[in-house]
Amino acid sequence: MSAPSARRKARPIAITGGAGFIGSNLADRLAQEGQAVIILDSLARPGVERNLAWLQHRHPALVSAVRGDVRDATVVVDLAKESAAIFHFAAQVAVTASLDNPVEDFAVNAGGTLGILEAVRCTDRNVPVIVASTNKVYGALDDLALRRDEGAKRYELAGDGGSQGLSESRPLDFHTPYGCSKGCPISTRSTTHAVSGCAPRSCE
């Protein structure tokens, strides 16, 4: 009898906002590879519960879910303790909503991400955190020219290397409330890593 694979013994990978479009597709891909996945999602966005049901139907033994808010410190701390890595996709995603209710927008995007980073910092392990963001953290981008890729039916940056997207070396420019709420976590993560190396610390 062959020894069980290391992957089967590994901790699960967590995906916040895992019932959304990107999160559910990532969860499906990971589960297809035999990786256990924990999804944290408030299911606030209409229709995402169908994505979660689809995932659990396809991978009943590998996909589990916690219905909760990324701002709930107790839930997030428990998630960080259990996970091998965290893909953080939970967010308020509408620019218009950030203008109508900037306090809520900032609480979810900036506060929620800071909560994830703090929960990971307080574990006794180095837990990778992969954060999804937006081009709104780079401002209006008025200086960039676009071209249409007819084959791929998409727009990309004009000039050499345009298909590779925007360089992350570009300075941040928080152009709107949405850019602020999504950009603060990027600055926080970069600063935390530079100062402490994301070193584990006891926060009991």
Lateral arrangement of strands in the main beta sheet: 3-2-1-4-5
Number of helices: 7
CATH class: Alpha Beta
Strand content: 5-15%
Total strand count, please? 7
End-to-end C-alpha gap: 43 Å
Keywords:
204 residues; alpha/beta; Rossmann fold; five-stranded parallel beta sheet; two-stranded antiparallel ribbon; 7 strands; disordered N terminus
Characterization of this structure:
The model is unreliable at 1-8 (pLDDT under 50). The protein has a single domain, classed as Rossmann fold. By secondary structure, the protein is α/β, with parallel strands linked by helices. Helix 3 (48-58) links the parallel strand 2 (37-41) and strand 3 (63-67). The radius of gyration is 18 Å and the shape is globular. The strands form two sheets. A five-stranded parallel β-sheet has the order 3-2-1-4-5, with helices on both faces. Strands 6-7 form a two-stranded antiparallel sheet. The chain has seven helices and seven strands. Helices cover 41% and strands 14% of the residues.
Please write out the topology:
Blueprint (H helix, E strand, L loop, with lengths): L5 H4 L3 E4 L4 H12 L4 E5 L6 H11 L4 E5 L5 H10 L2 E4 L6 H6 L1 H20 L7 E3 L14 E4 L4 E4 L19 H20 L8
Parallel strand pairs: 1-2, 1-4, 2-3, 4-5
Antiparallel strand pairs: 6-7
Brief rundown of the structure:
The protein is of the alpha/beta class. 41% of the residues lie in helices and 14% in strands.
